[in-house]
């Protein structure tokens, strides 16, 4: 049997058949049930792309519980906050990641440890000694095998509870309500259309499963695809080899991946057969028009894009043909969705005029921010909600995103709120004030810059700020560029005029986001 004919999950040299996955999910569900996991509870996952991610996610959902993926780049305090906020009954964690966050696990949270697999160790250059379980750890594989299959009926439908970065420094869990059977069917039909799903497809997962869109795509791929290939870490040439080796047809990707693929020498790109590709869906960050055009020239009209957020779901869809005819568009509104561009007074603006985008899909399961319902009310207007983007429609109904209303940076498809980083900088001795914002970056779309204003008489070096932040925050939140400044521009209210700081960089780049 060829690799492409295998039905199930593939990761490196490991295989897990569909039947084996189903059996392990039922055993894990029984185990979670015995640990007290019930409807509405949370099972946290601190895992890289691995079989256990799907086993634990699907087992939790079977019990009507929420799988809570945690960004494994987070430091201990960041992980601890999410575990406490969601009151995780269980944490499933890779062995090497546990070493850095063990002290942050709340009392009462059961910890199940997954031996870090060899392909992950190779991808991240992890010492195999760190990948093995400690003597007192509860081994995930043995724990799963020790339980009989769960025999109860599938409980109310749930989704992953994704934590988004917060404007006040702490992330917010997007907790969806259980849909009606009819709304669930419509939602799944929409997702299949957006992902281009078909029976017998072969999917690859090169994006991190803790991220909202790869998570959604991945959970449906393991159900709909005949074969799903987990990619431990994105590497441009290795992905091309995987596409050729497994005859991949479907993927979710981010624009940064396209940039890295296009940086490969022409002779390397031509070395691999990518003719099996049928449907590539991308989202999460703006894709430069020249990058997307170059990818379509290389991979053919396989690229599709949706616009939306963790909160809203996919509200528009654009094909390659749509993009080529309307460069820069994120597509037309999907059937049943509502998207409106509104001015400051809540009035809908005419075609060609930018406005803040408010949206909703009536049948898409509604949500609240876990433990922060007031934050949910803040983003709503007349039954629609916003994720803070500014855009406009053309005369034919195609949507274009042109700016961002909220103080958010999207770097490599990851949402980063400067408030969290600014709060950390302000805690450093000698700092009077600071501003963190996004500036253009050819590979990641935008990257973080910080301007730090010392207190009178204090001496602070950029390296001091960087070292302090690296001890406090995930590495991707540490600004690549740090400058020391004086007399930062301020609005009448005293707030730093951040737009004035960032505008020169974006003007030079010829774009706003």
Protein model, in words:
The protein is an alpha/beta fold and 513 residues long. Among the domains are: 17-158, Rossmann fold (3-Layer(aba) Sandwich); 409-509, ANL, C-terminal domain (GMP Synthetase, Chain A, domain 3, 2-Layer Sandwich), CATH 3.30.300. Helix content is 33%, strand content 25%. The chain contains 18 helices and 27 strands. A 9-stranded mixed beta sheet has the order 2-1-10-9-11-12-13-14-15, with helices on both faces. Strands 4-3-5-6 form a 4-stranded parallel beta sheet. Helix 1 crosses helix 2 and helix 11 packs across helix 13 (289-299). It is globular. The N and C termini lie far apart (48 Å).
Q: Helical proportion?
A: 25-40%
Low-confidence stretches: none
**Rough outline:** globular
Largest sheet: 9 strands, mixed
CATH architecture of one domain: 3-Layer(aba) Sandwich
> N- to C-terminal separation?
48 Å
Strand order of the largest sheet: 2-1-10-9-11-12-13-14-15
- Mean pLDDT comes to 92
For this structure, the CATH topology of one domain is Rossmann fold
Number of strands: 27
Helix-and-strand structural type: alpha/beta
The total of helices stands at 18
CATH class of one domain: Alpha Beta
Features:
513 residues; nine-stranded mixed sheet; alpha/beta; GMP Synthetase, Chain A, domain 3; four-stranded parallel sheet; 25% strand; Rossmann fold; globular
Give a brief rundown of this model.
The protein has 18 helices and 27 strands. The radius of gyration is 23 Å and the shape is globular.
């Amino acid at each position: 049997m060829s690799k492409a004919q295998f039905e199930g999950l593939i990761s490196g040299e490991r295989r897990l058949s569909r039947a084996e996955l189903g059996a392990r999910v039922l055993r894990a569900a029984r185990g979670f049930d015995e640990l007290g996991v019930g409807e509405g509870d949370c099972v946290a996952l601190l895992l890289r792309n691995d079989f256990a991610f799907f086993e634990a996610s699907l087992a939790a959902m079977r019990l009507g519980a929420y799988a809570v993926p945690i960004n494994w780049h987070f430091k201990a305090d960041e992980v601890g906050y999410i575990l406490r906020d969601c009151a995780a009954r269980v944490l499933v964690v890779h062995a090497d990641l546990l070493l850095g966050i063990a002290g942050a696990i709340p009392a009462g949270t059961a910890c199940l440890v997954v031996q870090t697999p060899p392909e992950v160790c190779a991808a991240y250059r992890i010492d195999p000694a760190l990948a093995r379980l400690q003597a007192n750890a509860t081994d995930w594989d043995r724990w799963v095998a020790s339980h009989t299959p769960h025999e109860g009926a599938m409980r109310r439908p749930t989704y992953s509870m994704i934590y988004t970065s917060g404007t006040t420094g702490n992330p917010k869990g997007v907790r969806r309500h259980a849909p009606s059977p009819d709304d669930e069917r419509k939602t799944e039909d929409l997702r299949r259309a957006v992902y281009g799903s078909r029976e017998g497809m072969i999917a690859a997962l090169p994006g991190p499963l803790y991220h909202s869109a790869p998570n959604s795509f991945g959970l449906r791929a393991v159900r709909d695809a005949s074969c799903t290939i987990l990619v431990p870490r994105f590497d441009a040439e290795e992905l091309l080899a995987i596409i050729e080796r497994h005859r991949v047809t479907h993927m979710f990707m981010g624009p940064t991946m396209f940039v890295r693929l296009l940086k490969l020498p022409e002779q390397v790109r031509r070395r691999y057969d990518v003719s099996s590709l049928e449907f590539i869906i991308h989202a999460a960050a703006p894709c430069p028009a020249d990058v997307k055009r170059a990818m379509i020239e290389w991979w053919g009209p396989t690229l599709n894009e949706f616009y939306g957020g963790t909160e809203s779901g996919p509200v528009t869809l654009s094909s390659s043909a749509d993009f080529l005819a309307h460069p820069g568009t994120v597509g037309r509104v999907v059937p049943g969705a509502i998207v409106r561009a509104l001015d400051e007074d809540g009035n809908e603006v005419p075609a060609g005029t930018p406005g803040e985008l408010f949206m909703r899909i009536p049948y898409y399961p509604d949500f609240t921010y876990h433990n922060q319902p007031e934050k949910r009310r803040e983003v709503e207007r007349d039954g629609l909600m916003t994720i803070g983007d500014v855009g406009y429609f053309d005369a034919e109904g195609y949507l274009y995103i042109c700016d961002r209303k909220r103080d958010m940076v999207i770097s490599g498809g990851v949402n980063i709120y400067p408030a969290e980083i600014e709060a950390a900088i302000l805690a450093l001795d000698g700092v009077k004030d600071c501003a963190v914002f996004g500036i253009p970056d050819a590979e990641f779309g935008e990257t973080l810059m910080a301007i730090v204003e010392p207190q009178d008489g204090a001496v602070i070096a950029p390296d001091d700020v960087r070292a302090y932040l690296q001890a406090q925050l995930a590495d991707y939140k540490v600004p690549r560029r740090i400058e020391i400044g004086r007399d930062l521009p301020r609005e009448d209210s005293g707030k730093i005029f951040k737009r004035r700081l960032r505008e020169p960089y974006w003007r030079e780049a010829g774009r706003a986001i």
